[in-house]
Amino acid sequence: MQALQSSAVVAVIGAGAMGAGIAQVAAQAGHPVKLYDNRPGVAAQAVAGIDRQLGRLVEKGKLQPDAREAIVARLQPVEVIEALVDARLVIEAIVENLQVKQDLLRQLEALCAEDCILASNTSSLSITSLAAGLARPQNVVGMHFFNPAPLMALVEIVSGLATEPNVAAVLYHTAKAWGKKPVHTRSTPGFIVNRVARPFYAESLRLLQEGAADCATLDALLREAGGFRMGAFELTDLIGHDVNYAVTCSVFDAFYGDSRFQPSLVQKELVDAGRLGRKSGHGFYRYAEGAERPPVAELASALTVDRCVVEGHLGALQPLVERLRDSGLAITERAGRGVIHVGDAALALCDGRLASQRARDEGLRNLVLIDLALDYRTASRIAISWSADTTATARDQVVALLHRAGIQVAAVADLPGLVVLRTVAMLANEAADAVLQGVGSAADIDLAMCAGVNYPRGPLAWAEQIGLGYTLRVLEHLQASYGESRYRPSLLLRRSHAQGARLHD
Ligand code: NAI
Fold this sequence. Notes:
By secondary structure, this protein is an alpha/beta fold. Helix content is 43%, strand content 14%. Strands 3-2-1-4-5-6-7-8 form an eight-stranded mixed beta sheet, sandwiched between helices. Strands 10-9-11-12-13-14-15 form a seven-stranded mixed beta sheet, with helices on both faces.
């Protein structure tokens, strides 16, 4: 399957933030681009804006001056929609309104060639609905860029019920030729990214609501233990709570109120208060001149430890043993159930049960649970929680052990799944369900989450790395603890684990 030739005319409709960015991408790839906006003069202003953007790249030495001129020469602002008649591909990035977009598509269908591809940059509308009632619904496809389009690599190529596979394939290869990382997906609520990312926000909001720790501490844990670029609170402050909450509500409604997507009252209250995040100067954090970030809570310990006993294999926590050894700690290893004994404490990787529950189930005293880390060899911070019978000395012994390895420690209330673990388990669960329902392949879903929202590892690859059986157990324990179907494990995880199969082909 071939990409569109770079000589093919690309039309972009809507010269706002997204349309201008998409026009720039297509022109940089060599296409003659026609940019149209129904507000007079806006397309020309957008081209001038692109020229300024490119000027900055020239100043930084990232673009040759003649390349800038050539790109801008390929961008033609037009004032009437009829000027788009020779387009081979039209990408609309107009207002997010089904009726308005449908009217536009109908107009384009009458205007453009029979084989012209009609693409929509919609983030939330159904491609199937957009194409319904058109004479050639097979030519309609989603081409969902991320903001800012020139910088973000991911493009979701969204097929509606009627989309011709060839049309999606041509667009996929065209996006690739434009230097993007395209993925195929089906027209289902949230497509890939806006669906699979929901638990990232939802689990942090829930942890906050249940008094796990404060925002700054939870954010720091997702960054420094989880390897995410931002924690959920700083990220939603950046996105804007109105926008993020609206996306959650739209996905929740589209899935008929499935509790997995339930919006958070904590976020609703911010929206109600007008605390929309950075843009309003206040969200979870304050952004006024001179406002300081609240400190991250850290546990201190006056103790020192010089030895520990590693009993059995620690599962995903095993790489911590090497780090402890490198710190000069004397380590005795013996067979057993996967616990580190340090002083009076038993330290184990969380498995989704409450510390107090697990201590009782397994007859362990002074049980301290440790959270998942992306990489225990490099993590600079980690969460722990402990069973109700844990003494201050036992807890301090664990803190001293982790300090010795150079890891800061944060206390989290005794809640199931701690912070990174429950976030990763729920992301993997949503990704698995999306694979099961044919929304995308495992490879495309992992790629989408890494390229679209900068996750440090694809959720499905992450689940495979820590073990499907373990991921499944964590979800089962979360579900049992909360008694909510929100945490029900995806059938795909269960089936793949039972079959000993991988999620990635
Ligand atoms: P925007 O408000 O910045 O720009 C929309 C532009 O479309 C405006 O210049 C407006 O004058 C023009 N327009 C509206 N109706 C029109 C019509 N009937 N014919 C021609 N032009 C028309 O909006 P933005 O943020 O660029 O979003 C555009 C689309 O991209 C929406 O569908 C949105 O959901 C989608 N999107 C937005 C993202 C974002 O982060 N802003 C990310 C991905 C997709």
